[in-house]
């Protein structure tokens, strides 16, 4: 990976870590599925009026939007609303790393090298150490929902790799548009019409939460992340996501007052060491399948 792309990956994980503070702030007044609806709705509109649809099959764009919007963030926000600490959520969702590597191996033939697997294992040990230290009193339901969210993120990663090199900003905009109606329907079914009440008198915290999630997080960070996934094997890119908990735990500690212990710092050090080891492993022995040259249906 080039230095420029490595710095871009660090920017992405920093934004994604800070997003957990924004999510927690928004959930103070807005139900989770409605907050998710607003996030992707504002990411899509009015951008769809000026950004052309991506040159990708409509089915894949829709599947990507659903995996990210409903699968990842729908479950994640609901889990946090049900009592899952935001900092711990930023850790557990990184189980998407082995999920992504395994799916890329199975679906794309991207077989990671031994050093990459070893580095990923060390980093995951760090994640597990912090999760065990912080999650002793966490209800099992929300915890499992975060693991499900990680699987949703991993699925979105593989769909991006299957789509190939296209305009990633367009993919984010139109994928956000595809997931907004299902999220709105789920919100009204699960949370009821009362979910619309916070929209009548939104707080500044809710407005800031939606704005940060829609623009720096969804349109900028995930567009860069998806671009990296199409340029490099999953085993090279996804370990960077293990830095998200570092930013997430530090930001939730500084802003929300969530505890920061010596065990957490030790686990974070393991994560950093594992990422460094994984990056020394070089490129995967497999190759990402190139996008098809034949004309494709657009959204």
Write a short abstract of this structure.
With 299 residues, the protein is mainly α. It contains 13 helices and no strands.
β-strand percent reads: under 5%
Rg, please?
A: 18 Å
The count of DSSP E runs of length 2 or more, i.e. the number of strands, is: 0
Which stretches are low in confidence, meaning pLDDT under 50 for 5 or more residues running? 283-299
How is the main sheet built? none
Summed over residues and divided by their number, the pLDDT gives a mean of 82
Counting H and I runs of at least 4 residues, what is the number of helices? 13
Domain unit count: 1
* Shape type: globular
How far the N terminus sits from the C terminus, by CA atoms, comes to 32 Å
Helices and strands: which structural class? mainly alpha
The SSE order reads HHHHHHHHHHHHH
Helix content: over 70%
Attribute tags:
299 residues; mainly alpha; disordered C terminus
Structure overview:
It is a single chain. It contains 13 helices and no strands. By secondary structure, the protein is mostly helical. It has one domain (3-280). Helix 1 (3-26) runs parallel beside helix 12 (244-256) and helix 6 runs antiparallel to helix 13 (262-280).
């Amino acid at each position: 990976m080039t230095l420029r792309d490595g710095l871009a990956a660090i920017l992405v994980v920093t934004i994604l870590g800070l997003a957990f503070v924004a999510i927690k702030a928004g959930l103070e007044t807005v139900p989770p599925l409605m907050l998710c609806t607003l996030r992707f709705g504002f990411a899509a509109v009015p951008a769809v009026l000026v950004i052309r649809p991506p040159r990708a099959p409509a089915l894949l764009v829709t599947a990507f939007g659903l995996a990210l919007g409903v699968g990842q963030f729908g479950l994640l926000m609901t889990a946090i609303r049900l009592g899952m600490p935001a900092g711990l959520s930023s850790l557990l969702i990184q189980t998407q790393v082995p999920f992504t590597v395994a799916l890329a191996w199975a679906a794309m033939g991207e077989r990671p090298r031994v050093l990459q697997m070893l580095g990923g294992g060390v980093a995951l040990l760090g994640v597990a150490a912090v999760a065990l230290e912080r999650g002793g009193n966490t209800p099992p339901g929300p915890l499992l929902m975060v693991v499900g969210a990680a699987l949703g993120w991993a699925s979105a990663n593989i769909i991006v790799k299957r789509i190939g090199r296209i305009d990633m900003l367009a993919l984010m905009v139109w994928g956000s548009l595809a997931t907004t109606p299902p999220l709105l329907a789920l919100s009204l079914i699960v949370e009821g019409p009362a979910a619309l009440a916070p929209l009548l008198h939104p707080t500044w915290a809710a407005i800031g939460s939606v704005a940060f999630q829609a623009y720096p997080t969804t349109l900028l960070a995930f567009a860069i992340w998806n671009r990296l996934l199409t340029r490099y094997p999953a085993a090279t890119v996804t370990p960077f996501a293990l830095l998200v908990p570092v930013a997430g735990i530090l930001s939730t500690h500084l802003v929300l007052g969530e505890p920061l212990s010596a065990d957490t710092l030790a686990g974070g050090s393991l994560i950093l060491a594992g990422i460094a080891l994984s990056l020394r492993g070089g490129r995967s022995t497999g190759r990402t399948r190139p996008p098809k040259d034949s004309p494709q249906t657009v959204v």
